[in-house]
Design brief:
The structure is a homodimer. Chain A is an alpha/beta fold. Chain A has 16 helices and 9 strands. In chain A, the strands form 2 sheets. A 7-stranded parallel β-sheet of chain A has the order 1-4-5-6-7-8-9. A two-stranded antiparallel ribbon of chain A has the order 2-3. In chain A, helix 4 runs parallel beside helix 8 and helix 15 packs parallel to helix 16. The first copy, chain A, is globular, with a radius of gyration of 19 Å. The two termini of chain A are about 25 Å apart.
């Protein structure tokens, strides 16, 4: 499916966006690059703002979310911005009590553990429950448009949302989550139907608010066997992506530890598949086939290495897919808190310099 | 390489061991089954003993290690025993101070962080540093021989040992470990040379003490990119396996999150490759090829499911490699602490019943 690029590009300048062109597997003047979590703790500007506001305060104040979204755009020559938000606020709208606890990460105070808990979850329209992020997208688009840099909207995928909703936070083995999935399939399917509606409608609303590309983050789906993924998760990721695709904008489908089931991830949908660093990029693309673009896949820890070692790692990624249109350079997962800023700058510049024609 | 089975089997009865036959990809009367960490916290007998002794006391007292090794053999119809030990005691012999801290897991009080730290590591012969486990193997062999159940010896692989040695415990992103690897390659190679000697010699000594199969656990190697694995780790896993193979006994090579680089894991060596549950077993075997047996790969969390759901999951694993000699049924990683014992018993019996000819 070689979709046409123009319908999704309103300002004429964006036709030449190398990021959007790569999303559509068109030839580019240089490989586009952005970094998952590119706005975040590794930047001084972000840490300064965090001394005054909590994460949720920043996310829920459109002006602050816009400001943080722009921080890495102002600091580095990135080819895309991603709206500053988090995958968890959609769960608040469903009735879950979310808190970011210092040192512990996100906590849900009333996790979903039973069919009754699932039944009581609401599915509010994103325009009501997540208006702050939609507003932040509008503000950020106004800032970005004179720079020809596209804006990415995103949502957690149904499984990853379910993981937080059911476990109540991070979890090593996801016993509650898989317990519900295998022990009460009816409740599970009810939960996943609600979550796929929430994720899909949220993505669609972000595109309607101005996001030009959407990313579905299924960060934890790699903990499933392929057969469990196919039976219990894939139909819901598919449903979320189908709703999002009503917008007409490209969808990036990202997961980690999915290298044993990339064919299923691809079949669930997405124009661009994001892969982690645990597979050679050309091997991943060989499995995924010609009908998708690919995003990745530097080990985030490589950014802590001396520049020469980092450069070699970046070259290996770029060389492995050289000359094939449709590669978006990124990390294999989010950038880490203490990443040296100098290396980020050199990385972004090097990707352009090394691949420019 | 279709190796001959007989030289490694001293008691005649063991020629009919379905576990050993499967290791050599010979036809079996039923699929053999054992479970990683089969002696452990999910068993009442083990928890009772742990009220009186620490983990290290059990490991270092051959009679207790033998007793714990035998607990699951007495409780279930398992096809192999694995000596009760841990992957970390070899680091003590090298000069590292190991402690198991309640609730936190293993801690190394003097982690390896520099070239000087690496230089000061000793490589003592296992007969000196790990005599307790070698003695436990001798005692356990005496117990097992009248039951025709083979005994597995094991070691952590160089990378996984390095991870604990350098990080000083568990670690999410392994910044210190990869920092040493990418920042000081000379120190890294020195460290990995020492660790491959330690692991290889330890495995060889276990075979000489009576272990009939050896397993190399590279639990954390899946955090590496394939290119980093090939350059910084593979030669050392290869070296450890080559030393172990001097014994003539089959070697199982196990890792998790390695599904993007199974070809490299195979090329590093091993007669049997252990895979996690994140890939269909037949897909893994397709990548691995005909010259190795395969071990795996049920999601350990499936053991918490109601029996019907668990049974379906076991059937999927067994059906996917039906009729192909060389499958050893196991979990995709170690059995978890609160696993229901009834499900373990039913699982083991069902594997035999469902596959018996």
């Amino acid at each position: 499916m070689q979709t046409d690029i123009e319908p999704t590009l309103t300002p004429d300048t964006l036709v030449n966006s190398r990021f959007l062109r790569a999303c559509h597997r068109r030839p580019v003047d240089a490989t586009p690059v952005w970094l998952m979590r590119q706005a975040g703790r590794y930047m001084t500007e972000y840490r300064e703002l965090r001394e005054k506001y909590t994460i949720l305060e920043i996310i829920k104040t459109p002006e602050l979310a816009c400001e943080v979204t722009m921080q890495p755009i102002n600091a580095f020559d990135l080819d895309a911005a991603i709206i500053f938000a988090d995958i968890l606020p959609p769960l608040e709208g469903m009735g879950l009590e979310l808190e970011f606890v210092k040192g512990e990460g996100p906590i849900i105070h009333n996790p979903v553990r039973s069919a009754a808990d699932v039944n009581s979850l609401r599915v509010p329209p994103p325009q009501e429950a997540l208006s702050f992020t939609l507003e932040a997208i509008k503000l950020t688009r106004a800032e970005l448009d004179n720079r020809s840099i596209p804006l990415i909207g995103f949502s957690g995928a149904p499984f990853t949302l379910a993981s937080y909703a059911v476990e109540g936070g991070s979890s090593k083995n996801r016993l509650h989550l898989k317990g519900l999935m295998l022990g009460d399939p009816a409740a599970w399917h009810n939960l996943m139907t609600k979550l796929s509606d929430v994720a899909g409608q949220y993505l669609l609303a972000q595109a309607q608010a101005g996001a030009q590309v959407l990313q579905l983050f299924d960060s934890w789906v790699g903990d499933l066997s392929p057969d469990d993924y196919r039976q219990f998760v894939m139909p819901y990721s598919q449903r979320a992506i189908e709703i999002a695709k009503q917008s007409g904008v490209p969808v990036i489908h990202f997961g980690t530890n999915t290298n044993g089931m990339l064919d299923l991830i691809r079949d669930a949908g997405g124009d661009i598949i994001g892969v982690d660093w645990r597979i050679r990029l050309q091997d991943a693309w060989h499995i995924l086939g010609d009908n998708v673009a690919i995003q990745g896949n530097l080990d985030p820890v490589a950014l802590f290495a001396p520049w020469d070692a980092l450069k070699e790692h970046v070259q290996l990624v770029l060389d492995s897919v050289k000359g094939r249109p449709g590669h978006i350079f990124n990390l294999g997962h989010g950038i880490l808190p203490n990443t040296p800023v100098d290396n980020v700058k050199r990385l972004v510049d090097f990707v352009h310099e090394y691949t420019s024609k």
